Amino acid sequence: MIMEQDRGDGAKVRVLIQKATNSTDSEVHPRLLKAIKSVVRSSDSELRVAAQTLMDLMKRDHSQVRYLSLLVIDELFMRSKLFRSLVVENLDQLLTLSVGFRRNVPLPAPAAVASILRSKAIEFLEKWNDSFGIYHRQLRLGYDYLRNILRFKFPNIQANAARRQQERMKRERRSKEILLSKFEMLKGNFSSIKEEIQSTLDEIRECLDIVHSKEDSKAMIPLDDDITEDFRPSELRQIRLDALKEGEIVHENNDNKVIFDALREVYKLMSKHLVSIKEWISVLVRVDSTDTRFRDSALREFIDIRNSLCAVKKRCEESGCTFTESANHDDKDEDFWEEGPVGATENGDSVACERKKEDLAMIGGSFTYERKNEDLVVAPTANVIKNAGTETISEAHVGKAVQNGEVGSSDSAPSLRNKLLADAPVIEWGSFLNTWDSKMDILANQRGLELESHWGRVDYDATIPAEKIAELNVRTSLYKEDQPEIQPCRAPLRKGGLCQRRDLRVCPFHGPIVPRDDEGRPFDTSSSLDETTPPDQEMGSVEKLVKQAVKNVRARDKEAAEKRERDKQALKRAKLAKIREHNEAVLRDAAVASTSRSSGLGECMETTGEMSGSAGNKKKTLALMLRKKTLTKDRISQRLLGIRSRDSTQRQLTLSQGANYGDAFPNQW
Amino acid sequence: MWKDIRDREAGKLRPNSFANRVKSDRVSSLQLSNHKDIVSPHRGSVNSLQVDLTEGRYLLSGASDASAAVFDIQRASHSEGLIAKYQCLFAVDKQHEHGHKYAISSAIWYPIDTGLFVTGSYDHHINVWDTNTTQVVVNFKLPGKVYRTAMSSLATSHMLIAAGTEDVQVRLCDISSGAFSHTLSGHRDGVMSVEWSASSEWVLITGGCDGAIRFWDIRRAGCFRVLDQSQSQLGRRPPISGWTANKLSTSKSHLASQGSNMKSRILHKKLATNGNATKPSSTTGKLPAKGSTRQRLHPGLLSSQDRAVSHYGAVTGLKVTGDGMYLLSAGSDSRLKLWDVESGCNTLVNYETVRLHTNKPLQLATSQDSALVFAPCMANIKAFDMWTGKASLTLSGHYEAVNCCLYSFQDQELYTGGNDRQILVWSPSRDSTELWTRRIGNPVQTKITGATDCPLPQGRSVSTLMPSIKLCPPCT
C-alpha cells in the first residue's frame, strides 16, 4: 500500500519536473519550483525519484532541458543532504553533461543556451564546493579538476568577496592607526597647542580692547551729549543712534594701522587654529583609545576653546574690521607661486600672473624680455589696469588686455600703434611670447642660475639657432565656431508679455518661431502651418480658405498616388502567386504522372509541413529551438532535390528519349 | 561482529580467520575517502604507486612530469577540519640534477628496506635513489623507454631490477655491480609488464606488446614457458598427499565455472602444505605428464609453443597473487585473464571488464586473500571477484583514465592514480562501524555479548573501542 502510494507520488514529482523543464524560458517557473520543493520535502523516496529524473533529463539532447534541470538540481542541492549525496555519487557525469568538458561529449544544440549552461554549471560547482566541499570529496575533486587541470575560469565569487573584505579591513585598520598616532601626538603636545591658542586669543582680545578703548574715548563725548540733550525729536535721535552705531565700527586710519595689522595677523592665525581645532575634535571623536579619560578631558577642553574662538571671531567681525579684504591681501602674497584660477577677475590674480610671467622669463633664460615686450606691453598694462581699476581682464586673452591697456594709457603715437594692433594676431598667452619675433640664438645650457652639476662636461656655449626656436614655437590655432544667437519665441502670452523661450525652430507652446513685432504678431502671416496658431489670432479668411483648398488638393493627389502604388504591388503579388501556383501545379502533375505512391507521400508531407508551421506560429517550443530557420533557398533546394521532382525529371528524360527514338525510327516499336 | 570477537576470545574462532572476516567486510565497503586527502605534487598523470614492503607506511608515486614523491600515509601532515591532508615528504623532479628528463613510468621501493627506491623512465634510464639524501646512487642506461621495473620481494641471493622496455630484450640490472647481469631475449616486441614470481626468487614473468607472457628462470638461458590463451585444460595433477589431492582436483574442475571462498581457502591451505616446495626445478619434476616433453624442449621451446599468445594485442599488466599460484594479466584486448601458474593454463574466468586502456602499462592490485582484483577500467576502478569474475564494486572518482591501483593490506585501503594527476584514497566506509553499533543496539545481540546494563553506555564503549581494534596480520 505504502509502496503504491510512493510510486504515485514519484510519478507526481516526475511530471512536475518534466513540466518545469519543458519550457523555453531562462528560468524555472517559480510556482512549479515551489511545488517540486514541497513535494520532495515530504519524503525521501520522492527525492530519490527526483534525483533520478533530473539525471535522466540531464542526458537529454537539448541544452535548454539540461539548463532548466540544472537549475532545479541546484535548488535541491542547496537544501537537501540526501539529494547532495545522491548527486555527488555521479558528479562526473553531471559535470560532463553540464560543463561539457569531455571532447567526445560536447553540449547539445542551441549553442547560446549551451554556453549559458556551461557558465552556470561552473558557477554552481564553485558554490557547491564552497558550501559543501568539506563533506564531499567528489565535489572537491571535480572542482580541482576543472580548475587546475582543465583551467576553467571560475567566477571566484567568494574569494573575491573575501579579498574585498580584507582590503576594507586593512584600510580601516590603517586609518585607525593613523588616528591613534595622531591621538598620541596630541597627547604629547596637548598643553603646547592649548597654550599657543590661548596666547593667540589673548593677543586678539588685547588688540580689540585697545582699538575699542581708543574709539570709546572718542565716542564718549557725543554720547554724553546725547544723554544730556534729550529734548530733540525722536527722528533726529534715531539718526543719531544709527550714527553712533556706525561710529562704533572702528575704521582704520593712520593712528591704529599698526594695531589693525597686528589684529589681522592674529585673526588669520586664529582661523587657522579654528580649523586645526576642528580636526582635533574629529580625531578625538573617531579614535577608540583605551585612554578615555584623557580623550574626554581633551575633547571638553577643545570644545571650550572652539567656543571661545568662535566668540572672539564673532566679536572681531562685529567690530567691523575689513578682515575679508585683508584676507584677500594676504592671498595676494600667498598665491605667489600658485596657479591662478583661469579667467579670474581679481586684481590680485592679475598681479600674480604677472609675477609668474617674470619668473618664467627668468627660467627661460631670455635676455630679450624687456625689448620685445615693448609692443605687447603685457606687464605694464596689468599694472595700469590695477591702478585705474577699470574693467576686469581675463588672463587668457592677451589681446583684450592689450586693448584695455590702450584705453588706460592712450598717450603715445596712437596712429602707428593702432595700425600695428589692428594687424597683430590675437593669440593665447604663453611663455613663447618671451622670445616673440627674436632673431637671436639661444644659449641652450644657460638658465640664469649658476648650477654646478656633476653629471659630466657641459658645453656652456651651446646654442639653439633662432630658426629652430621659431620652428619649435609654431602655434596651432583651432577654428572656433561662433554660436548663433537664438531668437526668443516672442509669442504673446495670455497673462501679458511675450514668450521668452529660446528654441531653434519650434517653441513647444507656440509653434514654429517666426519673426514677430513688438506685440507678438508675426510679420509674415503666410507661414505654412496655420492650425497651430491660436484661434483668436486674426487672419484673413479668404487666405485661409485658399490654403485649405490647396491642401485638400494635395492630399487627394497623394492618396491617389498611394493607391496606384498599392494596386501595382497587389498586381505584382497576384502575378507571382499565379506563377507559383502554376509551378506547383506542374510539379504536382509531374508527380502524379510518376507514381501514385509518391504523390500520396507528397500530399502527406505537405500537410504535415503545414501543421508544424501552424504550431510553430502558435507557440515557441523546445524542438523549434533546435530547428534551423528554413529559408526560401532551402525550400527551393528541397523541392528540386526531392524525390518527386527527381522522379519526374527522370521520367521526362526517358520519355523524351523514347520520343526521340520514335522519331528516328517511326515504324518500329 | 561482537559475537566473532567473543568467539575469538573463547578460542572457537581462529584469530586468522577472524581477521580475514573483518578485512573482507571492510574491503567490500570501500568508497572514496573524504577524510584522507593526498595532496598530489605531480603535474602529470600518476603512473605508478607502491607502498613500501617493510612498514606499509610510505607511498611512492611516479608521474609523467618526471617526478616521484613519497608520502607518509600513516601520519597526516596537517588537517583541515575533518579532512586530513597528506603532503609528500619529498619529491624529486626535473629540477633535480640527476632527475629524469621524461615521464617516470614506474617507481618501486627496494624490497628490503626504505633506504632505496628505483625509478624507471621514458628517458631510457633507471635510477636508484637513496631515500634519505634523495640522490641517485646507481644509474642504468637502457636501449629504450622503460615501461616497468620490478624487484623480487623474496630474493635473498640477488638484488636485480627487471626492466621491461621498448626493446625486445628484458634486462636485469644488478644494483650491487651497477651493470646488466642478464639480457633475456625472446619477446618479439617491447615489454610492457614485468613481474617477479611470488613463490620463487628465480622466476620472472614478463608480458610483451606481442601479446605473449613468458616465464624465465634466471638461472638458465631462455624462457621456460609461454602462456597460451587457448590452452585451458588442466592436466592431471600428481597426487601430493591423500585427501588434499582429492579435494584439489574437484576444486580445480569447478574452478573455471564458479568459485567461492571455500575453494580459495582450500587453495590457501594447499599453499601452506606445499610451503616452499614450489620451486621451478621441483615443479618440472612434479609434472610427469608433460615433464618429458618440456624437459627436452626447454633450451629453445618448440616453435609452435614459442609463438603462443595470451592476449590479442599487448599485455599491459601482470599481477601475481599473494600466494604465487595464480597470475592475472590485463591486455589491450580489454580482457583480464587469470592463469594457473603451475600448469600455465588459462582458467577462463570471465571478468566483466568494460574497457581497459591500451597504450599504457596498467597496475593491478589484489586484496589480501586474493578475493578481489582491482583493475583500472578507464576512469573507474572495478573490483572483481577473483574466482567468478563478477564485478562487485565500481569506484568512480577520477576524471580521467586511471593508470594504477594499489591495495594496502594493512589498512584495507586502496590508492589509485590517474591521468587527472590525483592520487585518491578509497577507504572502508564508516557505515560499517555504524552497522556494528546497530547490531549492538539489538537486544538479542546485547545478551549474547553479555551486556546486562543499559544499552547506551554499551554503544558508547563501542564507538570508543572501534578504532582501537588492531587488524594485525594473521599470526601463525
Q: Record the strand order, biggest sheet of chain A.
A: 1-2
Give the beta-strand count of chain B: 31
Number of helices of chain B: 10
What's the tally of helices of chain A? Answer: 25
Largest interface, per-chain counts? Answer: A-B, 14 and 16 residues
User: What is the CATH topology assignment of one domain in chain A?
Assistant: Serine Threonine Protein Phosphatase 5, Tetratricopeptide repeat
Q: What kind of assembly state do the chains in view correspond to?
A: heterodimer
Summing up helix and strand content along with how strands pair, one would put the structural category of chain B as alpha+beta
CATH level 1 class label of one domain in chain A: Mainly Alpha
Helix content of chain A: 55-70%
Named CATH architecture of one domain in chain A = Alpha Horseshoe
Strand element count of chain A: 4
**Helix amount of chain B:** 10-25%
Termini separation of chain A (Å)? 82 Å
Morphology of chain B: globular
Query: Sheet bearing the most strands of chain A, described?
Result: 2 strands, antiparallel
How far is the N terminus from the C terminus of chain B? 22 Å
Radius of gyration of chain A: 48 Å
Principal-axis shape of chain A equals: extended
Keywords (chain A): Chromosome, Coiled coil, DNA damage, DNA repair, Metal-binding, Zinc, Zinc-finger
Protein name (chain A): UV-stimulated scaffold protein A homolog
GO biological process, one term (chain A): response to UV
Subcellular location (chain A): Chromosome
